[in-house]
TrEMBL record:
InterPro entries assigned: Aldolase_TIM, BchE-like, Elp3/MiaA/NifB-like_rSAM, rSAM, rSAM_sf
UniProt entry tagged with the keyword ATP-binding: no
Gene3D superfamilies in the record: Aldolase class I
Record's keyword terms, sorted: Iron, Iron-sulfur, Metal-binding, S-adenosyl-L-methionine
Cofactor: [4Fe-4S] cluster
Pfam families reported in the protein's UniProt record: Radical_SAM (PF04055)
Source taxon at top rank: Bacteria
Protein name as annotated: Radical SAM domain protein
All copies of domain Radical SAM core, residue ranges: 12-238
Gene Ontology MF annotations: catalytic activity; iron-sulfur cluster binding; metal ion binding
Span of the signal peptide: none
Amino acid sequence: MYPLNYVEPVFRPPSEWKSLILQVTNGCSWNKCSFCDMYTSENKKFKPKKVDLIEQEIIKVAESGIKTGRVFLADGDAMMLPFKRLKEILELIELHLPQVTRVSSYCLPRNLRNKTVEQLAELKNLGLKLMYIGCESGDDEVLALIEKGETYQSSLIALNKIKKAGMKSSVMILNGLGGPELSRQHAINSAKLMNEAQPHFLSTLVVSFPLGEVRFAEKFTQASLKPFRQLTQQELFSEMEVLLSELDLETTIFRSDHASNYLVLKGVLGNDKAALLGQVRHALQQPSDANLRQEWQRGL
């Protein structure tokens, strides 16, 4: 256990479960996405942490004797910090925790607008090697409905900038985000965005609303769309079939194994595209024989 005091709750990508979570900001700088309740509590109002406090925490970890090879910069969007501050934090990690081989962070596309490729390359050389980008969708209508504050184009610009800097990107797409009415265009345009960006990692999870879907669903009503409802299991598989069919990726590592997914999918696209599509189609045709997660197993 790391000797740090966190402003909770603290979230991190599933793959960072072994990493030191270094809280360099509290909350999310945008925090308007209608599907997200992660940073809505009163104590999660956005605020950058002072660099002297960050240094004290890094030194605490170093003095504890705990060895960690990876660091994740929390909370929701550490990349909103200015280049100079990010560089300072990475230099402190390098100084006090020289065994760290990789630093990562969540990243909203908008917060790379004021950072050049050269600046990102400098941060990469200081250890910041992986960005987790919650694109959620490649469809502009869906993105507007969920108040993401991003577009297909703004996401693509950010992903290309990350790639040019020599960093890796891990992109998240949310299955079911457009409901039944927008399901197909959500899948097709998400695939189109991924085909243009060719991220290193791509993962999907099923959109869910632990605190209720009223705030999310009302946007659909305001847009004169059919009332939103979550996709059924079979509708989710149909959307995944469209997404996979439209994807034209070269070496992207694909994962759809989050607890929210009924069907676990893992592979490299494009090598494993046919096999993954076969799994999805089998689940559509014979769900009782597809080794699906039960509702109680989904950890929503």
